[in-house]
Amino acid sequence: MEKIVGILGGMGPLATVDLMGKIIAATPVQSERDHVRMLVDCNPKVPDRTTAILDGGPDPTPALVEMARGLVSQGADLLAIACNTAHHYHPAIQAAVPVPVLDMIALTAQRVAELNPPVHTVGLLATQGTVRLGLYHRHFAARGITVITPDEVEMETVMSLITGVKIGQVGPAPRASMTALARSLRGRGAEVVIAGCTEIPLVLSTEPDLPVFDPTQVLAESIVHMVRAVWQGR
Amino acid sequence: MEKIVGILGGMGPLATVDLMGKIIAATPVQSERDHVRMLVDCNPKVPDRTTAILDGGPDPTPALVEMARGLVSQGADLLAIACNTAHHYHPAIQAAVPVPVLDMIALTAQRVAELNPPVHTVGLLATQGTVRLGLYHRHFAARGITVITPDEVEMETVMSLITGVKIGQVGPAPRASMTALARSLRGRGAEVVIAGCTEIPLVLSTEPDLPVFDPTQVLAESIVHMVRAVWQGR
User: Fold this and answer.
1) A167 and B32 Cβ atoms separated by less than 8 Å
2) Which of B16, B20, B44 has its CB closest to that of A33?
3) Contact B25 A74 (CB under 8 A)
4) What's the burial of A27, exposed, middle or buried (CB within 10 Å: 0-12/13-18/19+)?
């Protein structure tokens, strides 16, 4: 029987739907049955990751571990986390379950490092939590790639746009603001901009002169690859 | 703690993502945490419902019952089925679990019957399985509403468009074809067209002179109402 992916989602809900849509689109299918079975815990009640990291807010670890165990007990053979910041808790989640938990941040850094021509500097749009902890920085540093981030004032805008997406603000105005922030990183020397929070792809488009790398897309492709190519040999 | 909805999905996957998007959009929120927690089993491996009904194909009941029990054991307080045809198995699913299973078809018939000015004739776009079994007919008949359906040749087009959506064919061409089928029902006297298969809203738009009633939207609103208004008193 084909393997099943479990998704720790709801952080936020639209980002989870975005990941699911990208998994569906990334699967080569000739009929409904060829699609990947996904068990999704879309749980918007998980304590806010950035608040926990920066301000000592409630710890999301128990909720994330409970979600991971629930998905595995329901039959998931592989887990994915539809939130970049929550990857801070990846080691705790992986330690709690006997199945592999994909690491979206490591996978993204690996894919960027494989780009040809090679990239030396990436711009990172992400939450304060992801930036402060250096979740991307450490993976890129290991590959000799420099990470630049928005300045303090811009970071406030990033956070406010991310919070907006979580409550459905995905129209032209937030899209224009997020794109301006990406352009600012590009102007400061970023060869590629990493949409390093799962809300960001919902308000940021790739344009010819503004190359964007989407970790949600990388995660979706990795899931399909694991379920169909690695395990099924297709 | 706020109640959790479990969704029997994957029939097809895009239709499940559509339902989730409609639940998210129907929820009044001020922050991520206000969204509804959804446990989703997006299982495209469920035997085809129409094939089982019309041609004696493999019975989907065991898969649907297993999915329902899994969602409840994971914590779902309420279940919904993101497939109209699968509502043929609603009694078996309901009998297998101790939580309420929403009936999208009954809810839709009720909402249509409440329209003002009243509707006397609806057009039904749905699978061969849904039409032959009269899943909508019986609920509308009980309310004195006549159901008209596409002719035999048109039904083949409906089925082929539905099968197409299940593998991602949601562009302008299928949209034009589905809209022509809805217009045909309208021309034959349908006051409202029911998008009675969860794939159909993905290739059918409401136009001013072509009123479409979307059961997926009705189900989404019912879920939000149950979780937030009925159980939480909001």
Assistant:
1) yes
2) B44
3) no
4) buried
| CB spacing of B13 vs A35 below 8 angstroms | yes
8 A C-beta contact, residue A40 and residue A18: no
From the list A80, A83, A190, A194, the catalytic residue is A83
Binned at pLDDT 50, 70 and 90, residue B79 comes out as: very high
Q: How far is B151 from chain A (nearest CA, A)?
A: 25
d(CA A39, CA A78): 10
| CA distance to partner chain A, nearest, from residue B118 (Å) | 34
CB atoms within 10 A of CB A69: 16
Nearest to B42 among A38, A71, A73 (CB): A38
Reported ipTM: 0.96
- DSSP annotation of B33 reads G
Which residue do the tokens 């379920």 mark? Answer: A227
Q: Which residue of A has its CA nearest to B12?
A: A32
- Among B14, B155, B197, B218, which one carries the catalytic annotation? B197
Strands B121-125 and B146-148: parallel
- B39 contacts in A (CB within 8 Å)? 39-42
- B38: which strand partners? A42, B5
Angle subtended at Cα A220 by Cα A63 and Cα B81, rounded to the nearest 5 degrees = 65
Residues of A whose CB is below 8 A from B75: 70
Amino acid symbol at B22: K
The string of pLDDT tens digits covering residues A119-139 is 999 999 999 999 999 999 999
Q: For residue B161, give the nearest of B209, B119, B184, B127 by alpha carbon.
A: B127
**Per-residue CA distances from B234 to B27, B32, B224 (Å):** 11, 17, 11
CA distance A112 to A211: 12
Sheet holding A146-148, edge to edge: A146-148, A121-125, A192-195, A212-213
Does residue B143 sit in helix, strand or coil?
Answer: coil
Q: Which tokens in the block code for residue B127?
A: 């699978």
DSSP-derived letter for residue B118 is P
Query: CA B170, CA A205: separation in Å to the nearest integer?
Result: 21
Average pLDDT over all residues of chain A = 96
pTM to 2 decimal places: 0.97
Mutate to test the interface with B, among A4, A32, A48, A161 (most CBs of B within 10 A): A32
| Residue A80 β-bridge partners | A7
CA geometry: angle B90, B94, B99, nearest 5 deg: 135
Report CB contact under 8 Å: B42, A41.
no
A83 in active site: yes
pLDDT band at B206 (very low <50, low <70, confident <90, very high): confident
For B13, the closest chain A residue by CA position comes to A24
